[in-house]
Structures are given as structure tokens and as C-alpha cells.
Amino acid sequence: MMLIDPHAHMISRTTNDYEAMAKSGVVAVIEPAFWVGQPRTHVGSYEDYLSHIIGFERFRAGQFGVRHYCTVGLNSKEANNEALAEGVMDLLPRFALKDGVVAIGEIGYDEQTELEDKYYRAQLDLAKELELPVMIHTPHRDKRRGTTRSMDVAEEHSMDPSMIVVDHNNEETVREVLDRGYWAAFSIYPSTKMGNARMVEILREYGAERIIVDSACDWGISEPLGVFKTAKLALESGIPKEQVEMACYANALSAYGQSGQMSEDDWLNPPAIDQRTVYEGNSILRGGRDPLVEDTVKPSGGDSMLIE
Ligand SMILES: [Zn+2]
To answer: Coil, strand or helix: which one is 62?
Structure first.
């Protein structure tokens, strides 16, 4: 089964993770712009981060046969540094229009401060102006109120719920998010957010319409195979295959495909892997390692006819 992991901070992960994800069936990942484990103190750091997830990280994923997309946005934690936030807001329109950018995100609330609210609203306006989907990060603390407020504010800005993915849901928030017409994403994150057994019960109760599963793997203890392990457990638990495919593949494509930047053809007819290639002079290979080079032309029989 083909899988999409629509929330994965791959910049923090290893090449082993890419290999394991590709082997498990992940054909595409979406890397949301977020914070990097500690606050950035200069706009320039943010600018380089955005170019990194749009540039080298995309190249790196491709070297393992995984298509890489990203979202750009000012995250809620760093929205609380007003000088930084103003600088980032100036950068965003330029980055949002680059190839492979499928949404403005992840944006929303963390501690639900006034500055978070100000920049969340400004970025909703930007998404609307650019006709891009939005990925909303809902807060870990006071989640229910934060989730409701995120949707209330989106509606104040006349956003269409079908253009918005509300992420990091749980049993407390899912009903309202679905009832209001939004996409409801779930981060399968060990011990803190949502385990895959709980996710299977949600699929059983709500079906898979507008439900999206992601790993949200990042710098912390997290699981890059979260989508695969959830799909597997769901199938073993009797969730119909069509529903598993919707939640672990098709819905993410429908939601983020609205950007016009992501289509099935990207991974059904991908460029051949050639690890000899470089990105601005930089390779993923380290000394002495043999590059993986796929044949673009498939052998047409007689493949042992060796001519040397
Ligand atoms: Zn995230």
C-alpha cells in the first residue's frame, strides 16, 4: 500500500529513517516549518531554515526515492518574539510560492498569547490571498479550547474549512473538527500525543472521511514509521482497506493537493534515483560509499547478457 506521511520534520531525521520509510511504503512526506528545538534569534536563521526545507531536504529525500513537500509559516512559539516575527512575515510571501510548498503552516496557538493570535491571523490572510491550504498546529496545553478557537478565528477570516487541516487531534477534539467541515489530522507520537491503538479506535468510530494520520516525527522521541504502523494495525484490527488508504494516503493528497503542488504522478513516475547527483555541490554520500543508481530504462529481458 502506498502511504503519505503528511507531517514529518525530516530535517531532524537520519538517512536510515528515509530508507525505512521508503521500504514501508511511504512515497511522499510533507515537512511543516516549525521550530527547531530552541528559539531562533535572528531572521536570517529562519530564512536559511526555510531554504533548507525547500532545497537540500527535498533533494535528500529524493535520493531515497521519497518525494518531499513542505509548508512554510511562522510557528506559534516564535510568534512571541515580535521582532523576529515581523522579519519572518516579510519573508513568507516569497517562500510560499516556491516549488513543493503545499500549505501555510504549521500555524496556530501554543500558549494562546496575543502575539500568537496576531500572527496566526496574519498568516490566515496570507494563505487566503495565495489560495494555499493551511496546516494548523493545535496546542498541547488546553487543547480543546485552543482547537475551537483556531477554527473560530479561521471562520472570522472567511476561510473555507476544506482548505484547512487541523493537526494533533485527539478523542476530545475530533468530533467538533469533523462536524465543522475541517480535515482532522492525528500525530501518532509515542506516549504523549496519540498511540496507534487509539487511532484505530477513532477510525472505527468515525470512519476515515477527512481523517489524516501522520507521524509528526521530529527532534524528540518520535516514530518515523507512525503512518505505516498505524496502517498495519488498522488492517489487522479489521478496519476496511479503503478506509485505511483514505486515512494514510488519499486524504492527505486531496487536502494538500489543493495547492496545485502535489500530485500522484510525482511518485508514480518519479525521476530515477541517482546518488551521484549533488545539490549545490553537496552529496549525501560520504567517502568511499557506492552510490545507488537506478536504471531509467527497465531491462527488456535477457538481463544476464553481460557485455564488458
Ligand atoms: Zn510538527
So the answer is: helix
Backbone angles phi, psi at 242, to 5 degrees: -60, -35
Which pTM does this prediction carry? 0.92
Distance 34 CA to ligand 1 centre (A): 6
- Residues 230 and 273 sit within 8 Å (Cβ to Cβ): no
Residue 274 pLDDT grade (very low, low, confident, very high; cuts 50, 70, 90) = confident
Q: Distance, CA 307 to ligand 1 centroid (Å)? A: 51
In Å, how far are 51, 148, 259, 287, 305 from 300, measured between CA atoms? 41, 57, 38, 34, 11
- Across all residues in the chain, what is the average pLDDT? 93
Q: Given this model, what pLDDT does residue 306 score?
A: 52
Give the helix ranges, DSSP H, for the chain.
15-24, 43-54, 56-62, 82-96, 114-130, 143-156, 174-179, 196-206, 226-236, 241-245, 251-257, 265-268
Give the DSSP H or E segment for 167. strand 164-167
Helix (H, G, I), strand (E, B) or coil at 247: helix
Q: What gap in Å lies between CA 159 and CA 278, rounded to an integer?
A: 40
30/6 Cα distance (integer angstroms) = 4
- DSSP label at residue 78: G
Report residues near ion ligand 1: CB below 5 Å. 34, 216
Cα 214 to averaged position of ligand 1 atoms, centre (Å): 10
% helix / strand / coil in the chain, to the nearest 5? 45, 15, 40
